[in-house]
């Protein structure tokens, strides 16, 4: 069976179970932590595939990836146990991503990012968030990143939209036009 279908089924079941227990927002944060952990630590996927690890060790590894082990929601803890006992621990990255996608779709949330060369004040960040929210009629899950290589300006991305108003890009365009 297709991995995407399997992971989506698990994610749908988790979303439904979390909603029944009124923990879907915390589970969303925990699944975001899992997704981030897989992105930061390449060895995590290899560790889950290691046949030497016991199921209890796999559960502990995934619980740690989800966040503070002691503060995990009962829903996430039970879900991790289910995934591990069903032999699907290696799919947890896909399941966590699918859960995030489903949660955002259900709550009309889009992901957005703003890349700037210097740090912004919280007021300016909030103002930009509200502009995007008005334009999309959705709540925006916004992240701000600093990249000094932009030299100035900003890069705003949300949904399928990308606005690159950085000095770096403008200079690259000018260079291509002069060379062409």
What's the layout of helices and strands?
Blueprint: H1 3-20, H2 24-40, H3 43-49, H4 55-66, H5 74-85, H6 92-107, E1 109-116, H7 122-136, E2 139-146, E3 155-158, E4 161-164, H8 167-179
Parallel strand pairs: 1-2
Antiparallel strand pairs: 1-3, 3-4
Helix pairs in contact: 1-5, 1-6, 2-6, 4-5
Structure, described:
The protein is α+β, with helices and mostly antiparallel strands and 180 residues long. The protein has helices spanning 3-20, 24-40, 43-49, 55-66, 74-85, 92-107, 122-136, 167-179; strands at 109-116, 139-146, 155-158, 161-164. It has a 4-stranded mixed beta sheet. A hairpin with a 2-residue loop joins strand 3 (155-158) and strand 4 (161-164). The model has no long low-confidence stretch (mean pLDDT 92).
Keywords:
13% strand, alpha+beta, 8 helices, 4 strands, 180 residues, 4-stranded mixed sheet
Short structural summary:
With 180 residues, this protein is α+β, with helices and mostly antiparallel strands.
Largest sheet: 4 strands, mixed
Q: Structural class of the helix and strand makeup?
A: alpha+beta
Secondary-structure element pattern, one letter each: HHHHHHEHEEEH
Query: What does the radius of gyration come to?
Result: 20 Å
User: What is the residue-mean pLDDT, rounded to a whole number?
Assistant: 92
Hey, roughly how much beta strand do the residues contain? 5-15%
Strand order of the largest sheet: 2-1-3-4
